[in-house]
Amino acid sequence: MKPENPFLAVLALAAGLLFLSPVLYSIWMSFQTADAYYTGNIEFTFRNYEMAIGQYNFARYLVNSVIVSGLVTLIGLAVATCAAFAFARYTFAGSNLLFGAVVATLMIPSHITLIPNYLTLAKAGLLDTYAGLVLPAVSNGFAAFFLRQYIRGIPRALDEAAYMDGASPLKVLWRVIIPLSKPAILSMGLYIFISEWNNYIWPLVAIGREDLYTLQIGLARLYRVNPGEDIIDWPLVMAASTITILPVLVGFILVERHLIRGMMMGAVK
Amino acid sequence: MLRRITPYLFVLPLLGFIAVFTYIPIVQSMNLSLREWDFLSPTKPYVGLDNYRLLLDSREFWNALRVTAIFAIISVPLRLLLALFIANQLLRETLVSRLMRGALFLPSVTSTVAIGVVFSWVFSTDYGMMNALLSSFGLPKVAWLQEPHVALWVLIFVNTWKQLGYDIIIYIAGLQAIAPELYDAAAVDGGRKVHVFRRITVPLVMPTTYFLLMISVIEAFQVFTIVDVMTKGGPAGATDMLVNMLYRVGFNLFDIGVGSALAVLLFAFLITLAVVKSRVIGRKVHYEA
After folding, report:
1. CATH class of B44-283
2. CA-CA to A106 of 20 to 30 Å: which in A33, B43, B129, B252?
3. Which residues of chain A are within 8 Å of residue B4 when distances are taken between CB atoms?
4. 3-state SS, residue B281
């Protein structure tokens, strides 16, 4: 790394902090008592988190979000990887057409599916269930496209060698392709998990039962408990908001480079 | 025999999900847009184009279309210009530029609901950060989210703040793909910085610009969450976007016919846009990195 002009470096870091200041301040505020906040004092407390988890059930919403995002990620990756393998390694009747149909979903705006998917799940009796949240979110055209591009870069000789040893296609996928595609699969896993974690409109439509709320729905509802400007308990709302942001924030700091590299690869290819 | 059906077995699960939850719903939406239904009644009588007529005669629809169009027309170019400019400053692989990229990118992976809530506080009239800042300069308070002329600009600001980092990252990838020799040649010719930016950077990064333009226009026309959290389309419809109207008509008023007609219109518009753009890209952009 090159040496920096220290003045510019400090300026840049100050700009970065200013840019993130609303979020940073909201986290700070979540540890303040409401009284202290409104009178401009500083008084440290965990009360807001105790209230969010005890009185407002955010522990449950957190569990729901983890379960739903986790399932969408696992099933989504499995389904996308299998399809990507077939599109990368086989030429079969209709393969171009089918791959086109997968890629075209990237251009299809999701709002068009809102009402029909609600009806489909209502008919199947899956509204107000985890399955109702997970199933419509599983197919991910971008992940399939991205993984197919990546798998095409893996030398075919490796597959051939495994087939010579009598391996089945499933075994080649599991033993050869997946281990070699780990960086791409990890990137896509993060991307799917974060998108699903932050998903708002579909849980809003598909879930009415309070105990199945995800964090996003719980937070939006909590914020609107008292829509009147003066009655909002801002420190409590910020504690709930921090619970909603934090898992992604921590994950982001841990794997930021992978995530950003994944985004860049996706854009260039 | 087994060998021949193997690839189909691998693609079947994905295609099954896509068929059930993406392609069939498009057809269903078109069908429902020609019928009158409220989720409950046992019959769905065919009413022809009545739902579309109803929609095109309503002030609500034209208002939402106008507001959404303003939102897109202002926020998309604003984002792209800012992003290209900032990306161009963050190309070097230094610690500071890496930290800056991370800080700028963070909002784009953060929950939109949480961002909406946090910025509702930032722009709240009595206790918000913005008004505290104004007061400290001796300026009067502004009712950011209650003032019809102001609220839409606040949403544009928050949306730009959230999405900017993604655009920057994509631009950095595009800019890094430009051959350094081109810059060297320009330097030898004594090109000034502004000149190099306009004559080399901007044209050569055009494929990235088209890519971002396409996804951000589609995204802007589908904006929902930030509006639902911060303004609910108010005050007095000043921030009412198309998808917020779609949600309201479909899931609050249970007018499936009109809701579907709105979905189909927006869908047709966005698909047309995507097709036109891919034609334009195909014709105008030749340079490959």
Report:
1. mainly alpha
2. B252
3. 92
4. helix
